[in-house]
Automatic annotation (TrEMBL):
Cofactor(s) listed: pyridoxal 5'-phosphate
The protein, known as: Aspartate aminotransferase family protein
Domain of life: Bacteria
NCBIfam families attached to this UniProt entry: PRK07046.1 (NF005453)
GO molecular function: transaminase activity
InterPro entries assigned to the protein according to its UniProt record, in alphabetical order: Aminotrans_3, PyrdxlP-dep_Trfase, PyrdxlP-dep_Trfase_major, PyrdxlP-dep_Trfase_small
Iron as UniProt keyword: no
Signal peptide feature range: none
One family name in Pfam for this protein: Aminotran_3
Entry similarity comment: Belongs to the class-III pyridoxal-phosphate-dependent aminotransferase family.
Amino acid sequence: MPVSLDGLLRRERALFLQSHPLSAAAYREAGRHLFGGVPMTWMNKTAGGFPLYLDGAHGARVTDIDGHEYVDLCLGDTGAMAGHSPEPVVAAVRRRFGEQGGATVMLPTTDAARVGAELSRRFGLPLWSFSLTATDANRWAIRLARAVTGRPKILVNSYCYHGSVDEVLLVVDPSGRAVSREGNVGAPVDPVLTSRVVEFNDLGALARELSHGDVAAVLMEPALTNIGIVLPEPGYLDGVRALTREHGTLLIIDETHTFSAGPGGCTAAWNLDPDVLTIGKAIGGGVPSGGYGLSAGLAARIEALEGLDLVDMGGVGGTLAGNALSVAAMRATLEEVLTDEAFARMHALAARFADGVQDVITRYALPWSITTLGARAEYRFTPSPPRTGGESHAASDPALDDYLHLYLANRGILLTPFHNMALMCPATTEADVDLHHEIFEAAAAELSR
Ligand code: PMP
């Protein structure tokens, strides 16, 4: 009799519990004083019923407290795209925090201008400001856009994610209406009042929504990466830029994940021309970092505005933003780790990853597809890659996700929770990718029995 997905999942959960007694015990203990039993509640997103506890991580390898070693294709959901604790970043952190001393002094260091120059070279935007997270970069970009345009609304794509930013937590429902995202926690007001939302790749809907004349900025990823990967169709991004210009709306491109597309993200790879570019996660090589780049024109418009408090409590800024440690880590990451050469290797590995997964999909006749964006690849349970966030959402299968994540974790491979995403870092090897294929094929074979 064929084993059901339910049965396979039960078996994998039992194996996970049996082989991770120390993580299970640590989780039980943590429940006494940590809300939800975890340092941050999203860590409860785990296929096995409890999280693995980290012992250490170097390059593309993670070890847990039960002594298992993993090939890490999750890489902190892009936060560790430079690899874990890359040597140049470790050295920069040691130097800045240890030898020279001083992380958060309320004084600039000369590293910051170097980072600004390097980000300008890569992404094309000339003027930069820093944050500690991509969420804050987006929040502050939104405030600046509202200030400059005098317009109230922000437009996003359905099933986007840009961090816990109030204005982005809405979707297009199956009847085509904008509605708050399910489970939206304590929204200050219904996001439908602050935002407009359209499906990715839908220029007609974008034109319709912008024609109201009340949208300060479109905030978007150049390819969706938080509902599988949804790539732009030919002409779509040019259309977005033309429509935003036509309607006096600013374009904010969030490259936090799409940075995988190359040293200058999709913006450089595809010749995009945003007014603002936001980024976080990987650029600090594991040290909290983020920032936004402004076009010269927009920077001049902001500076010309009277009465904006950009120095004190005006709503843009954070005490530790741009701190010396974060900036030193960004400099080392950009100058020495996530280099052009590293991206070329990472892209070749992601292509190898996608080819191997596609081969298994074909041989086992699975109704799945895989999409690649530079150094990242993600499979989705739909025969052809989705065109919109809504289509991709409809192809979700949480039980199948859990089964694959657990099957792989039980055999030494970590995929990204919330995704079926695999990311390559400079330390990932062909052997790592091939090991994934071997185990992925075994998981597929069990499903097809
Ligand atoms: N932008 C994008 C595209 C993201 O995927 C995320 C997080 N997954 C964020 C912003 C927010 O990043 P953080 O939680 O590090 O602030």
